[in-house]
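Shipment paperwork, digital attachment
Item: protein structure file
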Amino acid sequence: MSIAVEVLGFEGCPHLPEAEALVREAVAGLGVTADVRTTLLADDQEARAAGFLGSPSIRVNGQDVEGRAGPVKGLSCRVYPGGAGVPPRWMVEAALLRAIGPRGILFLCVANSARSQMAEGIARSLAPAGVEVFSAGSNPGRLNPLAVQALAEIGIDIAHHWSKGIGDIPADRVEAVITLCAEEVCPAWLGRAHRAHWGLPDPAAVPGDSEARLQAFREVRDELLQRLKRVFGGVPEA
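Attachment content:
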């Protein structure tokens, strides 16, 4: 399956080379086959005709990776979340994963107690019928009750989940793997799959009282929700 990736900009845009490199790295990292092209727009008329949202813009199969559709004002620079001149890599990877449409997706961390468990729960709530979602860890522990509480706040029940090892996962049904470790050494997946790394801080390692610890879980939950909405075709609310 070939995926069309287009980088749009104008000559002299300071962030265009960075965006082109970002796309190449994301495509190579995921191991996908993609037709990557750069389109240079010459003037406001061309920009409006192309639905240009500012330079650089990245489209995967015709869809903007940020999920925006307008307004179109002509040739201009573009600013991404946090004031960056290019989108975060995860945003490009999410668009590529959406285009791939894996039928089985696995989330990995070390203990399979917090980040990967929340990712599994959120993905299950968003994935279309027929898509299998798994999570596992290289050194499984036990499901963190704060992960259960954080997801219950948004109507997702993972109280029945349990921590699983990599060997418990049916490798032949996994088509995409997302590792979530940040400070730790992430487990290796030896099977064939598209791979992305979304390093997120371990909320279980945050010190403080119960409210501070729960807030850390909420922040990771919300970040996962934002990213996985893009993987499964939705656009997060502004």
